[in-house]
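Batch job 17 of 40 flagged for manual review because the log was empty.
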Amino acid sequence: MDDRTALAERFEEDRSHLKAVAYRMLGSASEADDAVQESWLRASQADVSEVRNLTGWLTTVVGRVCLNMLRSRRTRHEEPLDTYDRAPGSDGGHDPEQEALLADSVGLALLVVLDRLAPAERLAFVLHDMFAVPFAEVGPLLDRSPDNARQLASRARRRVKGGTTAADAGLPRRRQAVEAFLSASRAGDFEALVALLDPDVVLHADRSVIPTPEPVVVRGAHTVAKGAMAATGRALFTGVALVDGKAALAMAPHGRLRLVLGFTLMDGLITVIDVVADPDRIAALDIGVLDD
């Protein structure tokens, strides 16, 4: 068997692994597929006769392709259309529900935090912490030393934990309520939503949510629950995250944070929901991943 045939066979064997690396780097299933295809084009033209660990080598090839895509995205300030606003099949054949399931399997909050990292930090963290690529191999991809790559991953790790804000003392109780609200929203369960809300619940939404000339205020459990029912599609791309030290909901198609719902509880019921979509306010939030 020649090197080219061996490489092709190994690439197919490793395709799911390479897609997993690319998805965590890019946060989009369609972009991950593009990165894997580009990686094959590059790999197929390379001399692999001296490569002893093809899987590891292919992983670094995908990592470099994704790094270039991330840098290009930031240079162009690229903002893809939100998946939930697309017709099924319009995203290169990807089903929005399948992409939502993929985001859930990785952790939407993690994708949000990864999207906030600089490309070099993201590469170092994803390859080392998530796929056990040694820093001795990560460093050259970034044109940096292994020690510098280690520092980038450490910085990213701190961001993932969301450590800049003191944790909420009532975090477990709040998290349970937030998860229940998300579950009922996704299922379109009106009665379950009403049961979670105080009868006099108030929802505040900033001007960027709808958008409207003025902030929106909605009162009453039934009215708020009806609004949540109307946003079932968006709930597919929403997950529980640590926001400024408190359990909240983050809506993030393609792992890019678009909207945050903060909750105030009293006697086990949700009394206030604050919906934030203003880009400046979103950028100022400290986002982290809730521990299991």
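Reviewer: the log was empty due to a logging misconfiguration, but the result itself is present. The two ends are 46 Å apart (CA to CA). Unflagging and moving on to job 18.
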